[in-house]
């Protein structure tokens, strides 16, 4: 194998890299095109829009009534009304009508005494120009309606048309060519229903970056995926950046090569750009996205974008997107920000700026963030995120007491209306998040998985609205209540059963090693996959081991842990472990074998101050509803006989409200 | 004329009216359609999206290097390295590759000592599963990716494709028919270059509401404009709401009749809905938008939307828009809000909820709002607004000391980066706002016209970054300096000349009454149009009168005033006045005659603490630039000989910084 590696140019920080980008390409704008205003929504004005007509372009009645010359009405009083004759000394008008010649005021119909078919009386004089929309009241011809650089929105269409601007000069949409590369990629159209070979990855980055290009006002084409083949990639980029003979302009305003931007032996983005043009930056001190690359080929900006989905998005939004907006002389989209408190201390690597995806919950009016996994390969860390924290490169971490600025991915109002469930993981929580939408689509549930003890600690720290927990008390075989009394002493909480579920050993299909119990696992030295410390399942496993007098050290793989039942099942499915403890629903989901070990209660722990809030009521109503119960029972491994049952109420003597 | 009027049903408040609307139509959703994920951006999921494959669907190398069975590496140390043979005890891999059979860890290429073509050495053991992306690390098959009701954005496309979801069930876009009505309306295509008859109004509402329908996830058709003709409107609405024989479904999900929703004799929306179905609400206690009307025809919601552009938008956004979103089971768009302080006391009418459009400036970190005109006919009050204050119906006004919540129409970050110029009006300020974009497109200028004295007061109250002023001191013929010293005593301010300009009498083309001077105006009893008190032009006019010994009461029309030069010119153009005092540029813009009266200095007054800020520097650089000077001179009536000249600097002894 070829071990030759490319070399990063000096790593640059984000601002410096962006300066290099804009120094090179900041003066490029797309061509200007003239189009009908009605087709120009979303476009950016390339020149100021100046009204050619006034609005209104005449004096108009602003009320229904009669138009008069105000001087005819002077002296009208209650005891000496003035009589007017429509058609002679007055004219009937409706709102919007042209004011008739030699009238300058409107008297509202409500203020008229209709005497007969030909005359009306008024008991007060009209002030000149009362209830008249004067010519040019909204727009005087020659008024500048919008400065250049204005993006035309729905409201703007009204001002432009009213001001007689029917055609506008706007910037063309920049055209982006997206070239996915990588021998491991497979097109979704050929991927079928999951039956594609192991080692293949569904190509999705081109669709995401295409969407983001649109979000930045551009159009895009997707090149068919190219394998890791230097000459094929070079050929595609060469064609895309070739100058057109006539116009002298490249057919694309930007080219994005996805994949192969790093310094590996099969990373061809750099050699391609080097051979056709010039590399400007390779490597930026940010994570995800460090292996970004960009250069210039025949004056066209060409990006090498790392293939991990989160890296690809961060790179696009930090560099390619702002450049596309700049080509239309438009400003970057300002995302809303908010100050948040991390639920726990966050470490960070010195020397790189980290983009940490976080969930954000609003509890007691405080915004609490909890971080999602940092892997750049995990697109769900972005789709599940409410916001992004940027930790500067010279900062080593953020403590729980600090307030940090989060860039929001969902509107603050939506975050504030989201119910935060923290704690143990159970598959029915996803069902609940979906089912609750059918009851009230304004309520959202955000659940994060930190284990049962983590959930109780989150309640103690006021960092969630409810916690999912299944902590066994070996003394009496009860669940959660003794833990609540011990760890949430003095806090008024309710405990409501969500489900009863079967925990057991998740095993490969047909159980090839014939593991029937934890004792079997121990005796046959099967490889185990554990759950993280603090999870109810870990507590259960440790209890089972101690009952049998087995030391954790005797379990092969005890030190390997996962955070969810589904990840335990995935570890078994992939052969990484022979078994792990988890819920039957997870085994069923991946068509694995299952040996029951125990039946346990999975409860929701809810502080009293939230128990009666509308959002919590919607959730509790939902879990008692037939459609939810039906869906839970269809999963397998669940009993809903206690679902919705209150198993613990706040004691009246508790200190806290 | 027919004086028969419709009658409003009981006026309802906004919440009650919306309740009626949702009680009637809240359960309607559009049909569900299945489509390719790649085409579904912007659509709303009608059912949960569940992954059918894991991502990755195999254990993958997460670094470039060699894949090994970690147990082969145990014991490796600096002084006793372990030798591995790629091809035998190790396998070369690149990031993303499938982990070869019986390997479970990757050693980064940077940590290898390459000995020769067949062997490498390592000086530390590998931990099992190091640098491996485990199967299902991002997505485990069967994971619920999104709950129903999720709107698919660019990021979502990546999660769906990665999870093997290639087709989705989404709600169809609701279809809206928009029917503009009104005999006064003229289509933009036939309006030509302003040469359409007086009394005609360019139809723009249908385009704006169509745009808003799209913004709410719907599609729209526009019906050709219908004159005020009961049977024609009824026919169109009847066709649009007729149920299809086969599907039993109306071809449109919503019909919006624009115009004729009020209670006038030619307001046909109500009789049309009454004759074909049932009116549910007529009249809501809000302004603008009070004459809104809606009802049900064959189960289809039909709106009567007032024809004033701001009313139409407010009504659509309060009622039609949320209903369209609800048809897709989507939530209303949450606009960002911010607390603002009114620059001056705001009156409000009891009994109606007012939507007051405001400009918002960020000065010294405080958000200051200044209200725009309240006329519902003025679309520019929305396009120029930064936000909307909603004043509840039981509140009579808001004092300067109150903080009130504004719904923002521009991102807060953009508002915070906007330079606020308050004070006298001059046409070159619009040029400046446009020209500054060519220098730095991140700087925006927001100017509001409150007269020269208003500008100085705004500086005193810290409500703007600079003020435009042209206040004549009759004592010595100087401009602004004596006023600054008097009204801004103790404040450190700079005064910089923007332009020298000609003020004079604006007169109808060919000056039919042959008014050559203010004395002529007085002697010929011409109708005058004045400027508002506190404006520099009013100060100038009053000074001229007193010099000539003429009392204001002797001037016909002295009590009629306008807020801008352009509106004075429009008053003359429309025949509302014979003349008014204003700048030559305004006369030139509307092709009117002009008799010069005086040459005056128009200066910018800038507090010292803003004078050196980057945004102010950009503005001052712009006004001295050749392109700006050239554009100013092209307007006519200006001299730029002093433009950019500092005419007053802060005195070193001033108290304030």
Question: How do you describe this structure in short?
Answer:
The structure is a homodimer of 657-residue chains. By secondary structure, chain A is α/β, with parallel strands linked by helices.
Fold blueprint:
Two copies of one chain form a homodimer.
Chain A: H1 14-25, E1 32-36, E2 49-50, E3 60-61, E4 65-68, E5 82-84, E6 91-93, E7 105-108, E8 113-114, E9 120-122, E10 132-133, E11 144-146, H2 154-162, E12 167-171, E13 175-180, E14 185-186, H3 188-191, E15 201-202, H4 205-215, E16 219-222, H5 230-241, E17 254-258, H6 269-276, E18 278-282, E19 286-287, E20 293-297, E21 300-305, H7 309-327, E22 337-342, E23 346-347, E24 353-363, E25 366-371, H8 380-383, E26 387-391, E27 397-398, E28 404-408, H9 412-416, E29 418-423, H10 428-439, E30 444-449, H11 451-460, E31 466-469, E32 472-473, E33 478-479, H12 481-487, E34 493-507, H13 518-523, E35 528-531, H14 536-548, E36 561-562, H15 565-573, E37 579-583, H16 584-589, E38 593-607, H17 608-611, H18 614-623, H19 626-635, E39 638-639, E40 646-648
Parallel strand pairs in A: 13-16, 13-17, 14-15, 17-21, 19-24, 22-25, 29-30, 29-31, 35-36, 35-37
Antiparallel strand pairs in A: 1-12, 2-11, 3-10, 4-6, 4-7, 5-9, 8-9, 18-20, 20-21, 22-28, 23-27, 24-25, 24-26, 26-28, 31-38, 32-33, 34-37, 34-38, 34-39, 34-40
Helix pairs in contact in A: 4-7, 5-6, 10-18, 10-19
């Amino acid at each position: 194998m070829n071990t030759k590696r490319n070399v990063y140019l000096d790593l640059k920080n984000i601002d410096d890299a962006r300066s290099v980008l804009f120094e090179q390409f900041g003066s490029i704008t797309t061509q200007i095109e003239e189009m009908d205003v009605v087709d120009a929504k979303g476009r950016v004005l390339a020149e100021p829009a100046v009204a050619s007509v006034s609005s209104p372009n005449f004096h108009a009645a602003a009320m229904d009534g009669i138009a008069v010359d105000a001087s005819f009405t002077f002296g009208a009083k209650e005891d000496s009304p003035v009589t007017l004759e429509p058609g002679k000394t007055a004219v009937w008008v409706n709102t919007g009508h042209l004011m008739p010649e030699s009238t300058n005021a409107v008297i509202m119909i409500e203020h008229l005494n209709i005497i007969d078919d030909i005359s009306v009386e008024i008991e007060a004089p009209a002030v000149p120009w009362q209830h008249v929309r004067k010519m040019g009241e909204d727009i005087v011809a020659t008024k500048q309606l919008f400065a250049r650089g204005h993006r035309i929105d729905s409201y703007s269409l009204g001002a432009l048309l009213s001001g007689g601007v029917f055609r506008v000069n706007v910037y063309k949409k920049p055209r982006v060519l997206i070239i996915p590369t990588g021998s491991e990629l497979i097109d979704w159209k050929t991927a079928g229903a999951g039956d594609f070979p192991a080692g293949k990855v569904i190509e999705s980055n081109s669709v995401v970056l295409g969407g983001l290009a649109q979000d930045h006002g551009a159009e895009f084409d997707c090149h068919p995926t190219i394998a890791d083949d230097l000459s094929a990639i070079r050929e595609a980029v060469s064609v895309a950046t070739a100058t057109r003979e006539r116009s002298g302009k490249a057919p694309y305003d930007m080219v994005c090569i996805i994949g192969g931007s790093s310094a590996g032996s099969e990373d061809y983005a750099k050699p391609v750009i080097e051979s056709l043009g010039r590399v400007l930056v390779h490597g930026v001190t940010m994570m995800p996205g460090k292996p970004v690359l960009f250069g210039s080929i025949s004056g066209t900006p060409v990006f090498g974008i790392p293939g991990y989905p989160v890296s690809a998005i961060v790179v696009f939004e930090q560099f390619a997107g702002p450049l596309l907006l700049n080509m239309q002389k438009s400003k970057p989209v300002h995302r809303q920000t908010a100050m948040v408190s991390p639920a726990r201390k966050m470490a960070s690597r010195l020397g790189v700026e980290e983009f940490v995806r976080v969930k954000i919950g609003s509890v007691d009016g405080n915004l609490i963030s909890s971080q999602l996994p940092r892997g750049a390969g995990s697109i769900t860390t972005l789709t599940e995120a409410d916001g992004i924290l940027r930790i500067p490169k010279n900062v080593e971490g953020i403590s729980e007491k600090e307030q940090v600025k989060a860039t929001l991915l969902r509107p603050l109002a939506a975050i504030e209306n989201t119910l935060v469930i923290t704690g143990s993981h159970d598959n029915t929580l996803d069902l609940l998040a979906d089912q609750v939408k059918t009851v009230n689509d304004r309520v959202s549930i955000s659940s994060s998985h930190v284990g049962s003890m983590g959930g109780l600690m989150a309640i103690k720290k006021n960092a969630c609205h409810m916690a999912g927990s299944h902590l066994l008390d070996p003394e009496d075989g009860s669940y959660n209540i003794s833990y609540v009394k011990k760890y949430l002493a003095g806090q008024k909480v309710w405990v409501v059963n969500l489900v009863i579920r079967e925990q057991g050993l998740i095993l490969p299909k047909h159980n090839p090693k014939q593991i029937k119990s934890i004792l079997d696992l121990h005796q046959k030295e099967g490889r185990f996959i554990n759950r993280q410390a603090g999870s109810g399942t870990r507590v259960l496993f440790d209890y089972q081991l101690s009952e049998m007098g087995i030391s954790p050290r005797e379990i092969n793989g005890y030190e390997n842990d996962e955070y969810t039942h589904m990840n335990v099942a995935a570890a078994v499915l992939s052969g990484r472990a022979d078994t792990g403890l988890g819920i039957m629903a997870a085994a069923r989901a991946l068509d694995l074998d299952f040996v029951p070990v125990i039946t346990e209660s999975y409860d929701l722990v809810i502080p009293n101050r939230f128990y009666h809030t509308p959002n919590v009521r919607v959730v509790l109503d939902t879990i008692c509803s037939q459609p939810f119960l039906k869906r839970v029972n269809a999963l397998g491994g669940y009993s809903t006989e206690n679902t919705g049952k209150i198993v613990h109420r706040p004691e009246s003597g508790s200190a806290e409200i």
